């Protein structure tokens, strides 16, 4: 969809955008993971900010830096919520909207605001009720995000371009697919195992978040 909106030739521009996108993602996602494990070892929390702000003792980073990190996390969650909730919004508004009236008419605007508010309130209630954020994120990341972000794209790329099987590009894509399939399988096994082990500590609406 994005490529279709670019002025031709779009392929080169799209490649630059993808390189920049994955560079930023790799830096912002893997840097905290690597440095967090390097600093705290196996004792690192699933939310690295909790490791930097222990329950006992002083914070291990400047207050302004921790505040900035929390702000960026909030902005990321808002962006993710907007993107991943679009399917739910589309389903709700398809059944509640009146197509004969304007998009911002009172008839369509009021139900849209009401339904979206109720949906977000329900999501917030579920998040507060099930305080094991790290375990759930681990399962979702291993089962959902890794295949969608790193495995399926290279498979579709190889199929769409029909690259020769002995070409460098085809081999590189196959290696990426194999490596991240293994990473996803290991991550799924480890995260589900941790979820099972932590199940005895789960309490609804608990203030003690299980990591």
From TrEMBL:
Q: Supply the alphabetized keyword list.
A: Amino-acid transport, Membrane, Transmembrane, Transmembrane helix, Transport
Q: Which residues cross the membrane?
A: 17-40, 60-84, 113-130, 136-157, 169-192
Entry GO CC: membrane
Instruction: Tell me which Pfam families the record gives.
Output: Aa_trans
Please verify whether the record's keywords include Transmembrane helix: yes
Q: Where in the cell is it found?
A: Membrane
Biological process according to GO: amino acid transport
Domain Amino acid transporter transmembrane residue range list: 2-193
Do you know which PANTHER family this protein is assigned to? OS05G0424000 PROTEIN-RELATED (PTHR48017)
Q: What name appears for this protein in its UniProt entry?
A: Amino acid transporter transmembrane domain-containing protein
Source lineage = Eukaryota, Viridiplantae, Streptophyta, Embryophyta, Tracheophyta
